[in-house]
Amino acid sequence: MAETDQAKNHEAEYTSKTLLETIQLLENKNDALRQKLWKYKRKPSGAIGYLLLVIGFSALVWSVMYTSHVAAFIGIALIFWGALFLYITPAQYMKTDLLSPTALPTFMAINGIIENLKYKGKGIFLPPQDFGGSRSQRLFIPFENNIVMPHADNITQEEVFLNSPQGLCLTPSGLDLTDLFEDELGVDFTEVDLIFLQKNLPKLFVEGLEMVEDIKMRKDGNTVRFRIWNSVYKDFCSKARQHVKSGCTSFACPLCSSIACAIARVTGKPVTIERSKVSSNGEKLGIEYQIIEE
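Now predict its structure.
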């Protein structure tokens, strides 16, 4: 009897180990395929498509002239792939030179309104779990320079001014960018953890979206630190800091805001930007996030 139970335990352990190895193998293959997709998104496919079409039609003409069934099949296959390549177009991206002129005025205007209304508190990125959706997030800016948490029942998607507690409730500037992170990685951030972000955000930022030259993430307790080199937002950040007193601690720039939204989604807890610092040459950005334990 004991030997039978022991055999069953060994079999269960073996099955569990095999299942874990299979899952890990599939995850590795998924990562590899995703990186290949990121590369192919940027490769022009139009020229290849037209080349395949020309060769395919030439093969069909040759098959008619010489009554060759093999050439006919080859021609049809090449035409099919040529047409397919014409429909697969590389991803389109905006030049970084246009980023500051188009986005900076709106960012500065919002920060100007916040400063003129004398709202002094740090922005609190509220998790989507408080609003019953994986992508519904709000940024709460308290009137006073302290951490006060609004109740989720008192916040709607339309309401801006809150009285209890007093503060502004806005849509984070990086919300859509965080949605893009999820789409590119094929996950819901509310279903993963910070280890997942630490493993996948660098690859996404550097290889997938080509937003930065390099990025490092480190977690110390409830503090999450990022170091970012040569971001596409570096000119945006340098110019914004010349006019916005609070830097990114109140209404943050899209890059800092998007990371804060991602952390709030993953942890299910409110997040603040404690500080951000740009190097003298503008190439290095350091951001420190704080996860609030309610």
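The chain has eight helices and eight strands.
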